[in-house]
């Protein structure tokens, strides 16, 4: 229990040097025997070692003086030697260096706190001395320290040099028995500044003392919002040797928290560079129901496809992605029904989903080049899809239910988009369907004002080499839109309005990204790079801050 602070304290022990250095690894460098020292360490454990080059005629001993960090802990070091004639020699045991003092304090800090968040700062005092110590613990206060002290009534107050008369709210008194006993005191505070706030704590008794200074990470209140602005620079298209100048208008939301605005830029010589720099966020372990599992299964295909075409096979990332895909493949089979369809909950659902089965068939076919996928499973699921075709007109019907509607993209509307989506899955598996193609050709005129339906139908017509593919492409190109970022397609009717980027929730519509990606695939089939490049520029400008897209369907198409 904290004691009341008396008006006059007894004489306190002088404070030693303030301890500030608390690394997880101990690195050092220097010169020994006229040679460089190589230093290294292992992240996550307090391990350190120094590697010395010593001449063969020497005794084999190397002495290096270094100042240990301020952490009260033990450091483990091992030794090995390399010789041109004798090879590698390893020391039979490790050496442990213990850093200790009989009286010390430790601050327990969270990883981070929000500005304005009320929390109790815990300070632990350790007494390994023989006698009990009456300890005065002080948290530094003053002007512009980055935090306020929290009072008992829940309000905050700045305690500065002008109002520190009487009881000091930054001081605690506590008695700690000797022999290795530790006790804690608490300082309720409220951070007032964003960034790194220095917390300086001292503990003093009549015969001992310690001082520690650590950093408290204070983050802005509210929600973090990341925006990504991408500019493509093609140096081959300019003769200006003075360079290329681009101006970016930094549009922050009107309700952005004061002091939280940050910006950085990266120069990457690869269209997918920003995605690959955050590749850990793209590789996912599939989990959940039959729909959730596929949402997390698909990004791994995109990563492996990129690694393959860039000749980066055999990497640790590839092995991890394959392992996750194999797990996701086996998990998805548990949601396979007796009729060889797939649904969110397998046999628990009333019917299998036509759309989800087509999605699984498309995804498994793409994954087949990286992991084992039973061809019989694909063929039996394709047979299920054929059974869902309405014989009278060739359209595909949906008897099941998709719970996660957003993952369907524009195909959630059914009718022509659903039939085109299922037919695409069949074509990508080498299966033609004259009835489905006839249905789509017969209904082309009906969807001439539907950009999404036109986009997927045009793509399917090019896959099937339909006689209607040129007509469909002309209809589709009549809906194209142009912007500073490039050419795209949108479901919006009328002139394009300026982006409402002043609000944090602004995001491009996933269906616009999806249909533009379908048009890009169509141009790739036609080998029309001149028309494809403006679409590439627009699509890359729509990526999020991590280099990816929000739409599951777009992620799937990204791997084609």
From TrEMBL:
Cellular component terms (Gene Ontology): extracellular space
GO molecular function term, any single one: serine-type endopeptidase inhibitor activity
Classification via InterPro entries: A2M/Complement_sys, A2M_TED, Alpha-macroglob_thiol-ester_cl, Alpha-macroglobulin_TED, Ig-like_fold, Ig_E-set, Macroglobln_a2, MacrogloblnA2_CS
Alpha-2-macroglobulin domain segment(s): 48-139
Keywords: Disulfide bond, Glycoprotein, Protease inhibitor, Serine protease inhibitor, Signal
Family recorded in the similarity comment: Belongs to the protease inhibitor I39 (alpha-2-macroglobulin) family.
Protein name: A2M domain-containing protein
């Amino acid at each position: 229990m904290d004691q009341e602070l008396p008006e006059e304290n007894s004489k306190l022990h002088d404070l030693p040097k303030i301890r500030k250095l608390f690394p997880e690894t101990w690195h050092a460098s220097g010169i020994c025997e006229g040679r460089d020292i190589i230093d290294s360490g292992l992240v996550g454990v307090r391990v350190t070692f120094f590697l010395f080059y010593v001449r063969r005629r020497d005794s084999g001993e190397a002495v290096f003086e270094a100042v240990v960090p301020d952490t009260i802990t033990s450091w483990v070091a091992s030794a090995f030697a390399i010789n041109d004639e004798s090879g590698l020699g390893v020391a039979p045991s490790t050496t442990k260096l213990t850093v200790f003092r009989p009286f010390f304090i430790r601050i327990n800090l969270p990883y981070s706190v929000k500005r304005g968040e009320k929390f109790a700062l815990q300070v632990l005092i350790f007494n390994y001395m023989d006698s009990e110590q009456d300890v005065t613990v002080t948290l530094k206060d003053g002007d512009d320290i980055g935090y306020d002290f929290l009072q008992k009534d829940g309000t905050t107050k700045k305690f500065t040099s002008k109002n520190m008369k009487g009881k000091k709210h930054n001081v605690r008194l506590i008695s700690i028995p000797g022999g290795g006993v530790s006790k804690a005191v608490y300082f309720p505070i409220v951070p007032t500044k964003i960034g790194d706030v220095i917390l300086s704590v001292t503990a003093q008794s009549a015969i001992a003392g310690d001082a520690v200074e650590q950093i408290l990470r204070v983050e802005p209140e509210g929600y973090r919002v990341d925006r990504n602005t991408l500019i493509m620079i093609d140096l081959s298209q300019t003769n200006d040797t003075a360079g290329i100048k681009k101006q970016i208008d930094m549009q922050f939301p009107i309700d952005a928290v004061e002091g939280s605005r940050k910006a950085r830029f990266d120069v990457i010589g690869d269209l997918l560079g920003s995605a690959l720099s955050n590749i850990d966020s793209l590789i996912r372990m599939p989990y959940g129901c039959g729909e959730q599992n596929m949402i997390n299964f698909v990004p791994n295909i995109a990563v492996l496809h990129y690694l393959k075409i860039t000749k980066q096979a055999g990497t640790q990332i590839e092995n991890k992605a394959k392992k996750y895909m194999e797990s996701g493949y086996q998990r998805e089979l548990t949601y396979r029904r007796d009729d060889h369809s797939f649904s969110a909950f397998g046999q628990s659902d009333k019917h299998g989903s036509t759309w989800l089965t087509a999605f699984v068939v498309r995804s498994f076919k793409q994954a087949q080049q990286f992991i084992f996928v039973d061809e019989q499973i694909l063929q039996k699921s394709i047979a299920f899809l054929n059974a869902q075709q309405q014989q009278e007109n060739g359209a595909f019907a949906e008897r099941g239910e998709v719970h996660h509607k957003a993952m369907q993209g524009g195909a959630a509307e059914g009718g022509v988009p659903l039939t085109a989506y299922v037919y695409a899955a069949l074509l990508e598996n080498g299966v033609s369907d004259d009835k489905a193609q006839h249905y789509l050709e017969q209904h082309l005129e009906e969807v001439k004002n539907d950009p999404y339906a036109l986009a997927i139908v045009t793509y399917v017509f090019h896959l099937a080499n339909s006689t209607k593919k040129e007509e469909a492409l002309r209809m589709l190109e009549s809906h194209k839109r142009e912007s500073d970022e490039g050419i795209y397609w949108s479901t919006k009717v009328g002139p394009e309005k300026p982006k409402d980027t002043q609000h944090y929730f602004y995001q491009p519509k996933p269906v616009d990204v999806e249909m533009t990606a379908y048009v890009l695939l169509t141009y790739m089939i036609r080998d029309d790079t001149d028309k494809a490049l403006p679409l590439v520029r627009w699509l890359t400008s729509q990526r999020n801050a991590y280099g990816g897209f929000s739409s599951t369907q777009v992620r799937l198409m990204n791997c084609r």
